[in-house]
Design goal:
The complex is a heterodimer of chains A (114) and B (113). Chain A contains no helices and 11 strands. By secondary structure, chain A is mainly β. Chain B is mainly β. The A-B interface holds A 2, 4, 31, 33, 40-43, 45, 48, 56, 90, 92, 94-97, 101-108 and B 2, 4, 32, 34, 41-46, 49, 89, 93, 98-106.
Chain lengths: 114, 113
């Protein structure tokens, strides 16, 4: 275990549904991230939170809405998704500065949009 | 614009052989270059990382070779084992944003027994 947990592990949702992905880290980190991993595409950074403040939004469509209530929890709220949004969504955490920038990843949520 | 290009996309190596994965980057301001390993059903995990002040870093069977002038770096897996079969990602980041990683496209490695 990496110290980063994600729920649910698998999610199937229709295009009109609303769902949320949850991430929790037990490593004392102060930065958390959402990535999208699709087949045949590099890992895409979606959002970055440092000390609960969003510092990066990589032109992600508004149908993805992140929430970071504290430095240990991160959510990704989903609504009116498209089939091309089907992917593995990975959460990661790290320290935001210092000699090591190692990011610890959770196992991901496999999302299928029907 | 993909700032880190990784090759090959897939690689098959016999047990005991050397696996070599290459990455090239465009942004000369990058100064932290990690490699991540991902097994099926798991998230990526840091394998080894290098900064451009050294040309090589070795940890066990894994070695990063770095060529700053060519803007290239590579991962060498010596004595490859079936347990090394995984997807490998190179990445790069800027010093003032070290936690903002740009990933390569990934290489799926299969080591045959």
């Amino acid at each position: 275990e990496t110290g980063v947990t994600q729920t649910p592990r698998h999610l199937v949702m229709g295009m009109t549904n609303k769902k949320s992905l949850k991430c929790e880290q037990h490593l004392g980190h102060n930065a958390m991230y959402w990535y999208k991993q699709s087949a045949k595409k590099p890992l895409e950074l979606m959002f970055v939170y440092n000390f609960k403040e969003q510092t990066e939004n990589n032109s992600v469509p508004s149908r993805f809405s992140p929430e970071c209530p504290n430095s240990s929890h991160l959510f990704l709220h989903l609504h009116t998704l498209q089939p091309e949004d089907s992917a593995l969504y990975l959460c990661a955490s790290s320290f935001d500065s210092g000699p090591s920038y190692e990011q610890y990843f959770g196992p991901g949520t496999r999302l299928t949009v029907t | 614009q993909q700032q880190v290009k990784q090759s090959p996309q897939s690689l098959i190596v016999q047990k005991g052989g050397i696996s070599i994965i290459n990455c090239a980057y465009e942004n000369t301001a990058f100064d932290y270059f990690p490699w991540y390993q991902q097994f099926p059903g798991k998230g990526p995990a840091l394998l080894i990382a290098i900064r451009p002040d050294v040309s090589e870093k070795k940890e066990g069977r894994f070695t990063i070779s770095f060529n700053k002038s060519a803007k290239q770096f590579s991962l060498h897996i010596m004595d490859s084992q079936p347990g090394d079969s995984a997807t490998y990602f190179c990445a790069a980041s800027l010093n003032n944003a070290g936690n903002m990683l740009t990933f390569g496209g990934g290489t799926r490695l299969m080591v045959k027994p």
